[in-house]
Records
---
Amino acid sequence: MDRHQTEKDDETSAPGRPTLKTLAFMTGLGVTTVSRALKDAPEIGAETRRRVQLVAKQIGYRPNRAGVRLRTGKTNVISLVLNTEREIMSFVSDIIYGVSEVIADTPYHLIVTPYSRSQDPLDPIRYLVETGSADGVIISRAQPNDPRARYMLERGIPFATHGRTDMGLVHPYHDFDNYAFATEAVRHLAGIGRRRLALLAPPVGLTYHGHTVNGFTDALSEVGASEVPFNTVSIDHSIEQIRMRTAQVMRRQDRPDGFVSSAAAATLAVVAGIEDAGLKLGRDVDVVSKQSSELLHLFRRELLVVNENFRLAGSELARAVLGWIGGAEPGSLQSLSAPGEVLAYRRSG
Amino acid sequence: MDRHQTEKDDETSAPGRPTLKTLAFMTGLGVTTVSRALKDAPEIGAETRRRVQLVAKQIGYRPNRAGVRLRTGKTNVISLVLNTEREIMSFVSDIIYGVSEVIADTPYHLIVTPYSRSQDPLDPIRYLVETGSADGVIISRAQPNDPRARYMLERGIPFATHGRTDMGLVHPYHDFDNYAFATEAVRHLAGIGRRRLALLAPPVGLTYHGHTVNGFTDALSEVGASEVPFNTVSIDHSIEQIRMRTAQVMRRQDRPDGFVSSAAAATLAVVAGIEDAGLKLGRDVDVVSKQSSELLHLFRRELLVVNENFRLAGSELARAVLGWIGGAEPGSLQSLSAPGEVLAYRRSG
DNA sequence: GTGACAATCTGTAACGTTTCAGTATATTGC
DNA sequence: GCAATATACTGAAACGTTACAGATTGTCAC
C-alpha cells in the first residue's frame, strides 16, 4: 500500500516541473537520498552523488522554493526597504542593480518593500519580520538611533544599513565618507579663494547629516573660512524651496561665495537660486556637489563635483547581508567608501 | 493516536506565529472550517464566520505564503523585469513606486528581476515561468515582435508590457503616446519658426521608435518642415556619443534649427553638443524634450519639455497585470497616456 | 562464525495550506 | 415516522522539501 502510493504518480505525470520525486524515480533512489546527494552530503556515495547531480542538471531540476521555505523557513529573499517619497532617484535604480549583481548567482530574489511618508518607517520592517518574508533586509537613511536597526537586532534578523547608526550596537553597514566629502569640499573651495561658505546638508534626522556638518565645520576652522547659515532647508526639501532660499541668501550682502551640496538634484536648485539672484556660478560663487551619475558637468560646466557610487553601495550592502546570513561576524561586514577628488570639469571666467 | 497527534502541539507551542491550527484550537473548530471561514465560504455559518474572522484579526493571523504557494501554486508575486544597463534611471525608480502604490493593499510582493546586456532578454522570463516564481510579470522596452510577450502568451502567464507590440496578439500594455509627442513637438517647433528638424529617437528595435519616427515625419510634412538625418545615435547611446554627434551635425552649414529628443538625459548631451559647436539654445536652435522628472527647466530655461509620468505607468501596468490575474479580458487592460502640452519655461533672446 | 561498526541508503513525519470526500445534525416533504 | 435533503462542519491527503530515526549491506577484528 505504501509502495503502491509511492510509485503511482510519477512516471506518468511528466508535464509538471521535475521534483525530488522525479529524480528519485529516474535514479531508482529514495527522495531522501536524492535530496542529500544534491547538497553533497558525505554519507552519500561519491558515485551516487555524481549520478544524481548529473541527472538533475540534465533535466533542469530546480528546487521548489515554496517547499524549501515551508520546510526550513528559509525564504531565499532579500528585501530592500525604500521610502517612496524621499529616496534619491538614482539611488533606487543604482542600488537595485548593485544588489542584483551580487545576488545574481545565488538563489536569492530581491523584493522591494516600499513605505511612504505617512507610515511609521518601522511598519515595513515589522511586517517583514513578523511574516518571515525575508532572510535579510537592507535599509537606507540610517539614523543615529535607528529603531529599525534596534528592532531587527533584537529579533536576530540579518540586515545591513546604508549609512551608519550611533547606538553602540554593531551591525553591517555601508557608508560613504561624508565627513571626508565635506572637508574636501571646503578645502577645495578655500583653495580657490572662497571664504564664506554655506552647506546644503542632508536632512537633520539622518546620521550622515551629522557627519557632513562635522566635516564642514571642522574644515572651516582648519582653513579659516566662515559659515553662512543655511540650515532652514536640506536636500530633502523641494526644488522650489531650495531655489527660493538660495536666492534669498544670495541677495544679502553677506552672501556666501561658496556652497557645498550633498545631492545633485538639490544642486540644480541651488544654481537656479544663484542665477535668480543675478549672480554667476564660477565668478561670484562656486559650488561643490556630490553626484551619483555623471551629469552635473553638463548642467553647468563650472560645477565642482564629487562622485558617490550607489551601485557599489548596493553591492556592498548585498554582500554584507549575505555574509551575515552565512554566519559571518556582523562587525566584519562594515565598509566605508572614500570620496574621490573634487573634480573640476572646466573653470569659466 | 491521530487525535493525540492533532492536539498535542498547539496550546503549548505559542511562540511561533499563529497558523490555521492555532485558530482552529482557539475557536474549537477544525482547520478546514477555519480556512473556509476566513475566505467567506457560504457553507460556513454566518456567525462562525464572523467569530473566526474576529479571532484571526485579534491575534494577527497572516496566512503563510509558503503554505499557500506550495498547495495552490499561487505565489502572490509580481515580477518587474528590468534591463540593468539600459533603463532610464527615473524610470526604474518611478515605475517601482507606481507598482507599489497599486499592490500596497493586496497580498502581492514586488520582486525585481534584472538582466544584463549580455543575456538573452528571454532568459529572465524563462526562469520566471519555468520556476513558477511569479503570478504576473511586467516587462519594459517592448518590441514590435516581442519574443518575451509571445513566450508568456504561449504559456498563459499574465503579463503587461510597457510599450506596445505589433504581432497581431492582444495583451495588456501601457504606453505613452509617442506619436502624439513627436507630432506636437514638431508642430511647436514649426510654430516658433523652426524648419530644419532633427530627431533623437529611441533605439531602433523598440516599438516606440517607430511611433516616434512616424509622428515626427508625419508632422514634418504637415507643417512643411524638413528633416536633418540624425539616426546614427539614439537615446540609448552614451552621453559622450550623443554629444559628439550633435556637435558634428551642428557644425555643418545645413545644420538643424530644431531638435526633438525622446529622453531627458540625452537632451543634456544634445545641448552640450550644441554649445560645443558655439551655438546658443533658444537663438540658433530649439529643443523639445521628453522628461520624466521636472528638472530640465533648471538645466537650460530655454528648453521645451513634454512630461511623461512613469509612476503612472507603473500603476497602470500593475493594475493591468492584477486585472489579468483576476480574470479580466487582456484586451480591456490596455492604456495609452496622452502627452500634455509642450511646456516653454521661459524664452530667451 | 559472530559482534561491532562503518558506509549507504530509506521511509516517515512535518512545515501550513486547500481540496476532496465525507459525517453529523437539523429540516423538510409526505 | 421515515426517507430525502440541506446545513454546518470535519479528517485525510497532497503540494515539495528536509530532519530524524532507522534499515540494509559489507568489512573487520578476534
Note: Residues 19-21, 31-32, 35-36, 63-72 of chain B lie near DNA strand C (CB under 10 Å from a C1').
---
Amino acid sequence: MATGRTHRPATRSRGIPEATVARLPLYLRALTALSERSVPTVSSEELAVAAGVNSAKLRKDFSYLGSYGTRGVGYDVEYLVYQISRELGLTQDWPVVIVGIGNLGAALANYGGFASRGFRVAALIDADPEMAGKPVAGIPVQHTDELERIISDNGVSIGVIATPAGGAQQVCERLVAAGVTSILNFAPTVLTVPDGVDVRKVDLSIELQILAFHEQRKAGEEAAAAEAGTPPPIRSTAASRKGPDGEVPAVMPA
Amino acid sequence: MATGRTHRPATRSRGIPEATVARLPLYLRALTALSERSVPTVSSEELAVAAGVNSAKLRKDFSYLGSYGTRGVGYDVEYLVYQISRELGLTQDWPVVIVGIGNLGAALANYGGFASRGFRVAALIDADPEMAGKPVAGIPVQHTDELERIISDNGVSIGVIATPAGGAQQVCERLVAAGVTSILNFAPTVLTVPDGVDVRKVDLSIELQILAFHEQRKAGEEAAAAEAGTPPPIRSTAASRKGPDGEVPAVMPA
DNA sequence: ATGCCTTTGTGAACGCGTGCACAAAGATTG
DNA sequence: CAATCTTTGTGCACGCGTTCACAAAGGCAT
Ligand SMILES: NC(=O)c1ccc[n+]([C@@H]2O[C@H](COP(=O)([O-])OP(=O)(O)OC[C@H]3O[C@@H](n4cnc5c(N)ncnc54)[C@H](O)[C@@H]3O)[C@@H](O)[C@H]2O)c1
Ligand SMILES: NC(=O)c1ccc[n+]([C@@H]2O[C@H](COP(=O)([O-])OP(=O)(O)OC[C@H]3O[C@@H](n4cnc5c(N)ncnc54)[C@H](O)[C@@H]3O)[C@@H](O)[C@H]2O)c1
C-alpha cells in the first residue's frame, strides 16, 4: 500500500472504520464489473474473491453501511453500487487540480480512469512559464500565479501534487490557503498540513524498497534452507539465480 | 496509503513487523537528507519530526534492528543509514523491468529517483510492435515476446506492471513463471499470484475515492454545524463554498 | 404450510500496532 | 569522581482490525 494518512487520530468517521473505507473502492470496482455483465446479485463469498479479501471481512464492511443483503441470496449488485458510490461521495462531481505537469503530471492528466468515477480534471498548473498555454491531454496548462484564482473559481477541494520534492511543501501550503482540504502527494516528501486537511501519499520508491526487503528475506531463507540441505520449496529454476545481479546473498560466508 | 500486500498471513519476517518495514524507507530518506547536510547525530525526536511519525514509534522501530542509539546523544546518522539500507536490502543492486510503456510506464522509466536507491531499470517491455526498438529514457523498448528471456538473462526478481487492467493478470503470470517474485502493480486489478510472490499495488483511483469520502464527510459535518448555529471551526472562507461543483452538500434539505 | 438449504449479520476472541510513561544508560559538567 | 541532564529502549495498556463460527433470516421446493 503506497499510502498513509496524516493527522486525524481516531477513526469514527460517521462510524465507518478507516480500513473499511479503504476497501470500499475495491468492492465498487468489482461490483461495477459485475454490473456491466448484468449480474443481478452476488454472494459475499463471490464478491470477496473478486475483490481479493476475506468474505467475513467484506460482510462486516457492508454491515457498517447498513443491511443491504438478503439472507440466502446475497447482495443486489445495482443497489450496492449505488450505496457505496453514495457513501464514498461519488454521486457528486469532484473537480481536481494537478500541480506539476512533468512526466508524471502529464501521465496523470492523460489518465482516463480519472474522470470515470466522479473526478474531473479542472486545471493543470505548472511553474514553468514555457508550459503556460500548452495543452496537455486537451487541457491548457496554467501558470502557478493563477493557482489561487483557479482553486477559488472552480471550488476545488482536492489537489494532486506532482512537482519535485523541493517545491511540494510550498505548493501544498498555497493549495491549503486557497481552500483545498484533500491532497494526493506524489512527491517524496513529508507534507505538513493544518488539522482538517487530509493528505495521502503515493511513493514509488518506498514501495520498491518494501518489495526489496521481502525479496532479500526470501533469498536469505532460501540460502539458509539450501545450506541446511533442505531443497528449496518449489520453483527451483528461478530460485537458483535469485541473488540479484549475480551477487552473493547477504548471509555469513562461513 | 495506496498500498496493500497480498498473501503471506503472519508478519514475523525475521521479527521485524510489517508496519515497521513500511516506515524504514521514510526514516532512510530523512537520514539521507541529514547525511547530505553532514549532520553527525540525530535524536529520535528530531528524526521523528522529519519523518512525520511519533518518536516513541520510531525508537521502537529501531529497537527491532538492534540497539544503535546512544542514550543522552541520539543516533549516528551515517551508521543508521547503513544499517537501514542493509536491512532493506539496498546494499545490493536490484534490476527491475517495467511492462507497459504507455503514459505511466514512460513516466516511471524517466523517473530519476528510481536508480537513486539501488534500483536499476533493466528493461522496458511493451506489447505494441510499433514501440519495439524505440528508446524511452534512453532505454530501447523490447517486445513482450522477449519477456521471459529478459527476466532470465538479467536475473530480474522485481517487476512493475503498467499495462491496462485487462492485460495485467496475464503479464503477471508470465512474469512469475519467468522467475519474478515481487510485483508492483499500477493497473486497477486484483492480481492473483502463487504463494511466495509479493504484490503491492498503487491505485490512484482508490486514493482519490478515499479522499472524496473524507471530503464529503467534512462538508457534511460543516453543514450540520452551520445548521446547529455552531460557527465552522476555522478557515471559514474556503469552507463557505466547500460543496464541490456548486452542488448542495448531500444532507437533508429540510 | 412446513421444512430444508443457503447466506447474511454479528458476537467474541485474538493479535498487531500505537503511544504513554519511565527506568536505565550514558554523556557532560563542575 | 559525583551530580546532573539528556535521551534511549521498552513494559504496559489500549484500541483497531481481522477472522472464526454460528444463530437468525429468508428463499424455495414439496
Ligand atoms: N515520474 C515518475 O514516475 C515518478 C514516480 C514517483 C514519484 N515521482 C515524483 O513525482 C514528482 C514529479 O516527477 P516528474 O518525473 O514528473 O518530474 P518532472 O521534473 O518531469 O516534472 C516536474 C514538473 O513540476 C514543475 N514544477 C516544479 N516546481 C513547481 C512548483 N513549485 N509549482 C508548480 N510546478 C512546479 C516543473 O516545471 C515540471 O514541469 C517528483 O517529486 C518525483 O519524485 C515521479
Ligand atoms: N496514467 C496514469 O497516470 C495512471 C494512473 C493510475 C493508474 N494507471 C494505470 O496504469 C496502466 C497504464 O496506464 P497508461 O496511462 O500508461 O496507459 P497507456 O494506454 O498509455 O499505456 C499502456 C501500455 O501498455 C501496453 N500494453 C498493453 N497490453 C500489454 C501487454 N499485455 N503486455 C505489455 N504491454 C502491454 C500498450 O501497448 C501501452 O503502451 C493502466 O492500467 C492505468 O489504469 C495509470
Note: The CA atoms of residues 123 and 150 of chain A lie 7 Å apart.
